[in-house]
């Protein structure tokens, strides 16, 4: 079953409750929360305070994507804020193994994200420890960018690595996913789809979610 995780980065922050209710009603599975520190990525978004408020108004799985340097400093805040899965960037962690263990110690799920230019072999010694791998299909920092086609091969390779080890790990793909390319991403092996501008930016959110579902069923 492929899960949809719309990114609130493209929501209207002055109207967040209403926007979240719309996607929840439309039947999405998760809510993708993009956290940016202006250091690891050239943009600043939201943090644990907003997450905490969001957690009080939705039953969706809170899928927190941390685009921040040395995230160990803030893991507890995001756990307390209601995160169900916390994904960190491999490139932002000096001791990725330690960060993974720290997240797990709080009893939440853990994901590791790779930028488009980071090779899959960096996962070699940590793959067995994670619940999800998030492959970026744009360079992180902004919504509304164009999907990088080479990532489809990367998804296929990752799927092979996971299957070869007999693991049950989600493959999330994030960046530039629209109704007209989601099928290729799913066919390549992704089972968690992030879409920001294509869902929250759509004129009709419900219709957009329905179209995504049609494509990936
Ligand atoms: O993490 C990021 C960007 O860094 C994403 O989650 C984007 O917010 C996805 O937006 P679209 O590319 O779907 O508009
Ligand atoms: Fe994201």
TrEMBL record:
Does Isomerase count among this protein's keywords? yes
The Gene Ontology biological process terms listed for this entry are: pentose catabolic process; pentose-phosphate shunt
Q: What class of enzyme is it?
A: isomerase
Q: Which cofactor does it need?
A: Mn(2+); a divalent metal cation; Zn(2+); Fe(2+)
Give me the residues that bind substrate, please.
Answer: 7, 65, 141-144, 174-176, 196-197
Which UniProt keywords are listed?
Answer: Carbohydrate metabolism, Cobalt, Isomerase, Manganese, Metal-binding, Zinc
Reactions it catalyzes: D-ribulose 5-phosphate = D-xylulose 5-phosphate
Q: How is its cofactor bound, per UniProt?
A: Binds 1 divalent metal cation per subunit.
A GO term from the CC aspect: cytoplasm
Coiled-coil stretches, from where to where? none
* Residues reported in the UniProt entry to bind a divalent metal cation: 32, 34, 65, 174
Q: Which domain of life is it from?
A: Bacteria
Tell me which Pfam families the record gives: Ribul_P_3_epim
Q: Give the residues annotated as active site.
A: 34 (proton acceptor), 174 (proton donor)
EC number(s) stated in the UniProt entry for this protein: 5.1.3.1
User: Is Metal-binding among this UniProt entry's keywords?
Assistant: yes
Q: In which pathway does it act?
A: Carbohydrate degradation
What is known about what this protein does?
A: Catalyzes the reversible epimerization of D-ribulose 5-phosphate to D-xylulose 5-phosphate.
Family assignment?
Belongs to the ribulose-phosphate 3-epimerase family.
Q: This protein is called what?
A: Ribulose-phosphate 3-epimerase
Q: Which organism is it from?
A: Anaeromicrobium sediminis
The beginning of the lineage is:
Bacteria, Bacillati, Bacillota, Clostridia, Peptostreptococcales
């Amino acid at each position: 079953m492929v899960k949809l995780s719309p990114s609130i980065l493209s929501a209207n922050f002055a109207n967040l409750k209403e926007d979240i209710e719309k996607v929840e009603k439309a039947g999405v599975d998760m809510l993708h929360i993009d956290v940016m520190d202006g250091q690891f990525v050239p943009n600043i978004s939201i943090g644990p305070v907003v997450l905490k408020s969001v957690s009080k108004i939705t039953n969706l799985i809170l899928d927190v994507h941390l685009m921040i340097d040395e995230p160990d400093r803030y893991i507890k805040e995001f756990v307390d804020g209601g995160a169900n899965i916390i994904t960190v960037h491999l490139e932002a962690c000096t001791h990725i193994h330690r960060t993974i263990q720290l997240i797990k110690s709080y009893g939440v799920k853990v994901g590791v994200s790779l930028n488009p230019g980071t090779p899959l072999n960096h996962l070699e010694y940590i793959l067995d420890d994670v619940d999800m791998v998030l492959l970026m299909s744009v360079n992180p920092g902004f919504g509304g960018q164009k999907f990088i086609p080479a990532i489809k091969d990367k998804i296929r390779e990752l799927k092979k690595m996971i299957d070869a080890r007999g693991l049950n790990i989600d493959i999330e793909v994030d960046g530039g996913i629209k109704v007209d390319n989601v099928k290729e991403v799913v066919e390549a092996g992704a089972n968690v789809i992030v879409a920001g501008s294509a869902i929250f930016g759509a004129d009709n959110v419900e219709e957009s979610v329905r179209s995504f579902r049609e494509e990936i069923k």
